[in-house]
TrEMBL record:
Signal peptide: none
Gene3D superfamilies to which the protein is assigned, alphabetical: 1.10.238.260, Aldolase class I
Protein name: 2-isopropylmalate synthase
PROSITE patterns documented for this protein: AIPM_HOMOCIT_SYNTH_1, AIPM_HOMOCIT_SYNTH_2, PYR_CT
Source taxon at top rank: Bacteria
Keyword list, A-Z: Acyltransferase, Amino-acid biosynthesis, Branched-chain amino acid biosynthesis, Leucine biosynthesis, Manganese, Transferase
Organism: Mucilaginibacter ginkgonis
A molecular-function term among this protein's GO annotations: 2-isopropylmalate synthase activity
């Protein structure tokens, strides 16, 4: 039976994510990532934009052959030749989806297409009808929906659903919206578009103002049931929504009543795979997967953490496959942290012995940024 609280997760690491200069992947690398995405439990993999290059076409073909359970999606513009290329590239997909669309904001309509609202609406409907002749599952994107006139956007979405769209994507292409504005947009569509329940509303946000995750959540709270994004939030400019962030927000705030089928324990591993293949380091303080995401370094936090993890840990590192939380030894660390590490190395000290060791430690930490086990051994043995 259809579960109204299930959120479908659409990964576009291999399409929107791969548009980043310097992040281009070979087909073999893309297949490896696609298999990992499948094992992560991703519902839809956007494998590429087949009309854009022979290499992208081939990657979509190979990914469609390589994965079984996820829907494999290919992007097109609202052009018949793009749609033809996508249909051909998806021929081996068990569950193919075509993702077609066109600009919806007046800015795009006038200055990108040199066109009118009426003409763009006709092109949108024609593209969906054309794609529907070959593939049942059609997702429509209304590019720059974040800045589009809401009544026109609603008209466009209603028309493409009537033409056969199964999913309607409302991209905040330029990462422009505030969370309440984006949430309101989704609510308006949910309440005002005829037959909106025949399609799934999808949120596709960009991170230009650092709001992609917040906007995606606002969209889901207002009725969207598909979220689009990338691993590590990679993507053009400031990137796309980080899927690991959205999924963990939903898991941490169970009160929202929304859930995904993602195996969150695989986030760390896939984050590192994408980072190394795309030669794009993960910033250390990146939520969920950054190397410092579970590192506690100040004395007050370390003390509180050692008394009860939950004082400073809202997500268990093991839930996202992180090796473990770390108590980092720096000049800001307190005695509890030093005691913790010394005990781990087999040293049980009296209160006075710990005070002496702590003084030596502070001396060392003032002159060395990162104190490791060898340093602690030397500190104890006096070597
Ligand atoms: O950001 C965007 O508008 C897109 C569409 C092509 C879906 O990536
Ligand atoms: Zn995008």
């Amino acid at each position: 039976m259809h579960d109204p609280n299930r959120v479908y997760v659409f990964d576009t690491t291999l399409r929107d994510g791969e548009q980043v200069p310097g992040c281009q992947l070979t087909t073999t690398e893309k297949i490896e990532i696609a298999r990992e995405l499948e094992s992560l439990g991703i519902d839809i993999i956007e494998a590429g934009f087949p009309a854009s290059s022979p290499g992208d076409f081939q990657s979509v073909v190979e990914i469609a052959k390589a994965v079984k359970s996820p829907t494999v999606c290919a992007l097109t513009r609202a052009h018949q030749k793009d749609i033809d290329a996508a249909v051909e590239a998806l021929q081996y997909a068990r569950n193919p989806r075509i993702h077609t669309g066109i600009g919806a904001s007046d800015m795009h309509i006038k200055t990108k297409f040199n066109s009118t609202r009426e003409e763009i609406l006709e092109r949108a409907v024609a593209a969906v009808k054309y794609a529907k002749k070959s593939v049942e599952d059609i997702e429509f994107y209304a590019e720059d929906a974040g800045r589009a006139d809401i009544k026109y956007l609603a008209k466009m979405i209603e028309a493409v659903i009537a033409a056969g769209a199964t999913v309607v994507n409302i991209p905040d292409t330029n990462g422009y919206c505030l969370p309440d504005q984006y949430g309101e947009k989704i609510k308006f569509l949910k309440e005002n578009v005829r037959n909106i329940d025949k399609a799934i509303i999808s949120v596709h946000c960009h991170n230009d103002l650092g709001l992609a995750t917040a906007n995606s959540i606002a969209g889901l709270q207002n009725g969207a049931r598909q979220v689009e994004g990338t691993i590590n939030g990679i993507g053009e400019r400031a990137g796309n929504t980080s899927l690991e962030e959205v999924v963990m927000v939903l898991k941490t705030h169970a009160v929202l009543g929304l859930h995904t089928n993602i195996n969150t324990k695989q986030f760390y591993e896939i984050s590192r795979l994408v980072s190394s293949q795309m030669r794009m380091p993960v910033q250390p303080n990146k939520a969920i997967v950054g190397s410092n995401a579970f590192a506690h370094s100040s004395g007050i936090h370390q003390d509180g953490y050692l008394k009860n993890r939950e004082n400073y840990e809202i997500i268990r590192p093991e839930d996202v496959g992180f090796p473990n939380a770390s108590i980092v030894l720096t000049a800001r660390s307190g005695r509890h942290a030093l005691k913790f590490h010394l005990e781990r190395l087999g040293y049980t000290l009296s209160k006075d012995e710990l005070a002496i060791a702590y003084n030596k430690f502070l001396h060392l930490a003032d002159n060395k940024l990162d104190i490791n086990d060898n340093d602690l051994q030397s500190l104890m043995t006096g070597d």
